[in-house]
Amino acid sequence: MASVELRGLTKRYGSLAVVDDVSLTIAHGSLVCLLGPSGCGKTTTLRLIAGFAEPTAGEIHVGDRLVSSPARTVPPERRQMSMIFQSYALWPHMTVAQNVAYGLTLRKVDRATIDQKLNAILATTKLDILADRYPGELSGGQQQRVALARALIVEPETLLLDEPLSNLDANLREEMRFEVRRLHDAYRYTTVYVTHDQSEAMTTADVIAVMNGGKIEQAGSPQDIYDRPRSEFVARFIGSSNVVRGPAVERDGVAFAGGVLRCNGARLVSGRDTPVSIRQHDIRLSATRPSDVPNVFPASVVRQVFLGGSRDYMIEVEGGTQLRVITAAEDDIPQGAPVFIQVPPERCRALER
Q1: One pLDDT digit (tens) per residue for the chain, 353 residues
Q2: CATH of the domain at 164
Q3: CATH number assigned to the domain comprising residue 299
Q4: Domain boundary among 186, 204, 232
Q5: What range does the domain containing 111 cover?
């Protein structure tokens, strides 16, 4: 294993910067998710790390080795990396055992060592009873585990995964998130994982790097990214936060719905238009006005949807701003009813412009 460091990494196609001055350190043995919407540059970044593309500017270091720069690029086969693609890329004419052992066979490892490593990885990935089957006889989740086992058996310094669960149905995708994390905890390979799925990133990652427009908007632990977003893009992309805007007033407030919304986060500049993130489940609804608490505003219920374990509301406050609110299922307030909303100031986060 080795750390991976991106230094000012840039990839241009003509005048378009697909990856734009990205710097990121991926610690030895950690799992980092590159998370963002389609076209944000995350897959191109992964291809640059793998050596399938050459940078226009910047460098990639693995441990103490320079593997990519505009002047010199180490080819993929000499980077000691394994990559798992969306399509799994399994050989249809080979059994599970043959597919998994293929990398060791290519390296001309002796038969006894191959058998030893193969038995161990098949047991760890729960594929031992499927060793003699062919890919066409496996489910999507089983094929994904074969691809993981094949990548892990060669003991790479770095493991790269490009949207590895995108072809699975929702239930299987949820199950495989935990499987990816379990295998990472077992082997602790330095791992870079590309996904557009927030839940996938939150489940698997030690660090999430949120990408937008070829840049990293914010990097941190899943909880840090969720609780302390720095930009409007991160707040909306992670957790679908409500984002309200208003001029900053005093040192900790923003004008909102005829009053002042107390908040924390970015430093406020009086009079400057300031976005504020409010998570849907942090807003409390009540039929009567709460007393002796800050951030209370009158509102009305625009719509309400029962979701089984919760209720999903759309609430409108003075000035026409609408907020989405998630409450417990027993909080049944009909459409059109007047309500009061209350948000703890510590859960209102002022964002960088």
Answers
A1: 679 999 999 999 999 999 999 999 999 999 999 999 999 999 999 999 999 999 999 999 999 999 999 999 999 989 999 888 877 788 999 999 999 999 898 888 899 999 999 999 898 888 999 999 999 999 888 888 898 889 888 888 999 999 888 877 778 788 888 888 988 898 898 999 999 999 999 999 999 999 999 999 999 999 999 999 999 999 999 988 999 999 999 788 999 999 999 999 888 888 999 999 999 999 999 999 988 899 999 999 999 999 999 999 999 999 999 999 999 999 999 999 999 999 999 999 999 87
A2: 3.40.50.300
A3: 2.40.50.140
A4: 232
A5: 4-232
| Same domain assignment for residues 118 and 96 | yes
Same domain? 228 vs 294: no
Q: Rounded distance, CA 201 to CA 292, Å?
A: 39
Q: What is d(CA 201, CA 271) in angstroms, rounded to the nearest whole number? A: 37
Same domain for 148 and 32? yes
Model confidence, pTM: 0.88
